Amino acid sequence: MKHILYILLFSLVITSCGDKKETAADVIATNDEAKIKAKREALVNQQHALLQEIKLLEDKIHELDPEKNLPLVTTFISKTELFDHYLELQGNVDTKQNIVIYPETQGILTKVYVKEGDKVAKGQLLATIDDGGLSQQLAQLQIQSDLAKTTFERQKRLWDQKIGSEIQYLQAKTSYESQLQTVNQLKSQLAKNSLRAQFSGIVDDVMIEQGSVVAPQSPVIRMVNLDDMYIETDVPESYITDVVVGKNVQIEFPVLGKTIQGKIRQAGNFINPANRTFRIEVAVPNADKMIKPNLTAKLKINDYTNSKAILIPQNIISENANGEQYIYVVKNKDGNNAKANRVIIETGKTQGDFIEVISGIDDNSEIIKEGARSVKDGQTVKIANQ
Known about the structure:
Elements: H1 2-18, H2 24-29, H3 33-64, E1 72-73, E2 75-77, E3 80-95, E4 98-101, E5 107-112, E6 119-120, E7 125-129, H4 134-160, H5 166-191, E8 194-196, E9 201-206, E10 213-214, E11 221-224, E12 229-236, E13 248-253, E14 258-267, E15 277-284, E16 296-313, E17 318-319, E18 325-334, E19 337-351, E20 354-359, E21 366-368, E22 380-383
Parallel strand pairs: 1-22
Antiparallel strand pairs: 2-21, 3-12, 3-16, 4-11, 5-7, 5-10, 6-9, 7-8, 9-11, 12-15, 13-14, 13-16, 14-15, 16-20, 17-18, 18-19, 19-20, 19-22
Helix pairs in contact: 1-3, 4-5
């Protein structure tokens, strides 16, 4: 069509030029600058007028062609599919076995038996503090206790044979028990000079050097166990019936670039009145020991599943004055032409750019996608080839 109009324009220009007494060649032959400029200006004005007339002709042709006025749309066919909705939360990794060991007494840190990264067993000796002579006192008391024990045992044998007085037996027994109690008290006091592992794990940090003076407020060693890891996070109370113990959880660690599977092992029974949430605890498998305490994690909890869901893009949904949501489907197809039909829908949960349609459309409905916001109810549309 454009080629025909350009030919028509050229013909009109030639014809209009032919109607003049002088052609452009004639004017050029005069070598008169003023005439040449005047001739050029006249031709430009004629060309402008012709272009305006051609534009009017094009507009009328477009108006008379019904195919040109149809809005162009694309469509897709609705299909039922499995829809898993996930509640997305964030939390930090923690462990119940992450402690700093402090001494119970003051003194010089005489020996440190471990270094950072060492694996230790529960009860293993980690460091010792100078006892200030308590071990020597214990040795002396132990000798006295052993003597008191021997005396008591002999006196008991005699008493069992009805030899000797009862007072001698009771005195020996009392002396032995007193010595034994004193020894046990000193052993308990001396045990405070030994720092031992309270659980099996890894020495994460030795905070004070050997030979330093320590006190009960001095941190000495940090121990961590990376086997029993977990994540605590708060969940809105509206999910209290869906987020329960045993639910599977996808745990993503952005820093590590890995995703693992976990389970909810504890769900709180208390709703926090300040933010209307309850707390959950998610167990974190850590076979390769790459997951560390305080690592940030993203949690995806499957709180809803529909095996026959219809999902549509959220951006094709409009809303009327009554707050009802609607989309357009096509009806009465004739080739690439069809009628746009407005349908009121009810929506459910969202996931990314898609939303679940609970009612309003069925499986195999043809829904307008591109152009959905520019058509009207009952309007004829043209479906683009896809």
